[in-house]
Amino acid sequence: MIRHDPFPLLLLLAxxxxxxxxxxxxxxNAFCESEEIRLxxxxxxxxxxxxxxxxxxxxxDLRQFRAHTDxxxxxxxxxxSEVPSGIGQRVSGNLIWTTHKEVLTRKNLTLxxxxxxxxxxxxxxxxxxxxxxxxxxx
Length: 138
Prior knowledge:
The chain contains one helix and nine strands. The chain starts with 6 loop residues before the first helix and ends with a strand. It has a nine-stranded antiparallel β-sheet, covered by helices on one side. The relative contact order is 0.18. It is of the alpha+beta class.
């Protein structure tokens, strides 16, 4: 029986882990630089708010934010465990959004507040590589 030395494989894994981590951090930082209300999944943007053709809605009682086109063909909606109030805060949420082909959901998504500017909040999920910018409408 031939035995293989596991060291090269372990070394390769150890070297790749920081590269993945750096990539995720770069993705999060790039997401936070934009002022747009939008949803990012992976590296794609299934929804970007355009005030000429879209509407926003927020319910403090339901802890729910929605952005959708005027005809509601494209949208994203997130219902949170609590209304975010501070950077670093973690909240859980149920997210639903449209793509060109289907309606997708992610339940019990852990989201971290990574930026707050006025009534706008940037939320990020490391595990899902999902970012969303919401506006608290009062």
